[in-house]
């Protein structure tokens, strides 16, 4: 589609609301991570992919000449996701804070350079009617952002539908950000189907996460009640622990399958080396005429 030539006032207002939501959406999550000093249940891969998606997202929005709020939106989104990813490295993987600060500074510098360079490279051609470079960038942004959600089903299956480590205030604000951004695209002179689909899918996925957690609460209401009567938290209550342990950790199973294959190969190599390192000594007669059995000597 061609770049927007005029932006209606309603699109600017709706886009501004969506951008404000997406500029503050991760503050509750960042605060939660800092307060609890843990990011368990919050996939670091999701945060990095969301951060990286801000680069093609920004290129596409600027090249398409969307309303100004939606052009600013990817930059704020990228920054906040990068900070949250840094928290995953510090609290989850025990990286040193200064190492993470230097890493984020270098990463943001590279991202900014790529975005500015590609905007100047493809925008003139796009204005002349060459659309495929911008469309390609939009598809990359679309796939990168949505791929950030891929770890979520693994977490939900592992925890039997329970959402852990993800702040629900963040999810609520994020949902409203996607919704109002979608409405801003609807209010524009020409609707953008690629990013309209992206915003709609974001709303759908986040609603499914909230629904999954509500179903978990419904299924565990009896256990949680008994845990409260016992004066302990659900995760400290033996019945609750046993119930949660029935979840399927697909990541662990995949690692186990790969590990078993490597282990069998290593065991086979060790056995082969051991056999090759043995020297068979033929039967010999002892001093009293008794046969001495073969002995394998390791060398």
UniProtKB/TrEMBL annotation:
It is found in: Membrane. It comes from the Eukaryota. GO terms for cellular component: membrane. It is a multi-pass membrane protein. Keywords: Membrane, Transmembrane, Transmembrane helix. Pfam families: PQ-loop (PF04193). The chain crosses the membrane at residues 6-27, 47-66, 98-122, 134-152, 164-186, 198-216. PANTHER family: PQ-LOOP REPEAT-CONTAINING PROTEIN, SEVEN TRANSMEMBRANE PROTEIN 1-RELATED. This is PQ loop repeat protein-like protein. It comes from Amniculicola lignicola CBS 123094.
């Amino acid at each position: 589609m061609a770049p927007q030539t005029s932006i209606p006032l309603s699109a600017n207002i709706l886009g501004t609301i969506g951008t404000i939501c997406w500029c503050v959406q991760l503050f509750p999550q960042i605060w939660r991570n800092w307060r609890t000093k843990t990011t368990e249940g919050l996939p670091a891969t999701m945060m990095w992919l969301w951060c990286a998606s801000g680069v093609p997202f920004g290129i596409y929005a600027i090249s398409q000449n969307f309303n100004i709020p939606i052009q600013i939106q990817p930059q704020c989104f990228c920054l906040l996701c990068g900070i949250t990813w840094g928290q995953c490295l510090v609290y989850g993987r025990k990286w040193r804070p200064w190492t993470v600060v230097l890493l984020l500074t270098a990463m943001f510098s590279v991202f900014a350079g790529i975005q500015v360079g590609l905007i100047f490279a493809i925008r003139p051609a796009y204005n002349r009617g060459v659309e495929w470079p911008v469309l390609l960038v939009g598809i990359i942004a679309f796939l990168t952002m949505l791929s950030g959600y891929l770890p979520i089903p693994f977490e939900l299956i592992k925890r039997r539908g329970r959402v852990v480590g993800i702040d629900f205030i963040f999810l609520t604000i994020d949902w409203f950000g996607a919704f109002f951004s979608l409405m801003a695209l609807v209010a524009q002179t020409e609707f953008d189907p690629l990013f309209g689909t992206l915003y709609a899918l974001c709303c759908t996925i986040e609603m499914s996460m909230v629904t999954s957690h509500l179903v978990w609460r419904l299924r565990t209401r009896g256990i949680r009640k008994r845990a409260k009567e016992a004066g302990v938290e659900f995760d400290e209550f033996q019945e609750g622990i046993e119930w949660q342990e029935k979840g399927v950790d697909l990541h662990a199973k995949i690692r186990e399958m790969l590990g078993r294959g490597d282990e069998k190969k290593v065991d086979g190599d060790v056995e082969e080396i051991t056999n090759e390192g043995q020297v068979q000594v033929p039967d010999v007669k002892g001093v009293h005429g008794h046969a001495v059995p073969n002995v394998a000597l390791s060398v």
